[in-house]
Amino acid sequence: MEAAPLAVFRILFGTMMLWSLVRFWGKGWIDQLYLQPKFHFSYYGFEWVKPLGNFTYVIFAICCLAAIFIMLGYKYRVAIVVFFLSFTYIELMDKTTYLNHYYFISSVAFLMMFLPANAYFSLDAKLNPEQSFQKIPRWTINSIKLLLGLVYFYAGLAKLNSDWLIDAMPLKIWLPSKFDVPFVGSFMGEEWVHYAFSWGGALYDLTIPFLLLYKRTRGFAFFMVVFFHVMTRALFPIGMFPYIMIVSSLIFFDAKLHHRILGLLAKALNINKTRFDNSRALVYQETTWSKTSTVLVIAFFCIHLIFPWRYLLYPGELFWTEEGYRFSWRVMLAEKAGYAQFKIMDKKSGKWFYVDNSDFLTPLQEKQMSFQPDFILEYAHYLKSHFESQGHQNVGVYVESYVTLNGRLSQPFVNPEIDLGEQDESFRPKTWILPFNDSIQGL
């Protein structure tokens, strides 16, 4: 199979990552999100991943440099490994900043470590003709298509629930506030628009991978990709994700389009593209590394197929408990807000006082903590350690918490009688989360 589609994907991926990182840096978010907070929320098992003070800028600089090398196809194997490690470290520093597209980028970068994305139209191929190949195994391109297809299809399956389809929630809450969007803003308060977006979004996610795969519908499908993501970007502040998905979808087109893209790029940069058209085909030899790579790629896709279903192992409503919610391509499905008041008690004397959360958390951290149980538990542990370090004895941490989900009235969220300082974080169900007094039908 022609290597041009993978080369274009590599160039666009590196370009988009560089743009994203520079944008993040330029907006001052490194300081705001990683340096200013006194406390950082960690992912379970990755508590050791923390911002490194001013050296955090060095991590971002390394990640930017790796993105440039990926774009150029220079020292590609080292560059993609460095990018994956540095970007994933950034992603894990504080789960307050969790976004599905960060997870998507880490997943793509991991997969690309095993792909010959530097085989064609790269500095590696130019400097070392032995690494130059015009044709590569079909699976190396199809694996990216499969990952994109999984992201879309699972996002569609996640929308098959009563809140999204029957009640048009949370779009019924979000869209009316977009009245100032040019051309379409005046329609955003109409109920039929809310249902059109809900049902259309589910149908789009479930069908777009198949429409992109089929040659006769591919042009229409790509138009829908552009329209869908431009519309979502206009309506919602979701950063670079729409642009990343648009350029990634080009991988579904045949090699002729990618050769034209590379031809235009070669002309603009005064590069002799024909030097890469050597008709050489890359054939993987049976080595220990190739066998290991095969096992890792298969394991990678098995995890992505199975992991989103882990929520079935937990009791209670997923949207309420959020146990198994992250890393499952559930994109913009819930509007939650909460209130969490922490009470520090001397369990021996019975004396207590309330905590002012703003003394320890940024507004964004407090907002995210107020309705996510693992945040609440981690913060409770932090408060226990903090006040014990100040000399308090027999410290118990209790919380009065109320949460609203998709327009419902607020309900008590955490059992106020349980000392969260004594509750351990684990993969076991959190029994101190109070039941959801409603039901959401579907997946």
Describe the structure.
The chain has 443 residues and is an alpha+beta fold. The chain has 3 domains: 1-127, no CATH class; 137-252 and 284-334, no CATH class; 337-443, no CATH class. The protein has helices spanning 4-26, 29-35, 56-72, 76-92, 100-112, 123-127, 138-158, 162-165, 171-174, 191-213, 215-235, 241-248, 255-269, 288-306, 318-321, 363-369, 373-389; strands at 336-346, 352-354, 395-405, 411-412. The chain has a 4-stranded antiparallel beta sheet. Strand 3 and strand 4 (411-412) form a beta hairpin.
Supply database-style keywords.
single chain; 443 residues; alpha+beta; 3 domains; four-stranded antiparallel sheet; 51% helix; globular
Structure described in brief:
The chain is 51% helix and 6% strand.
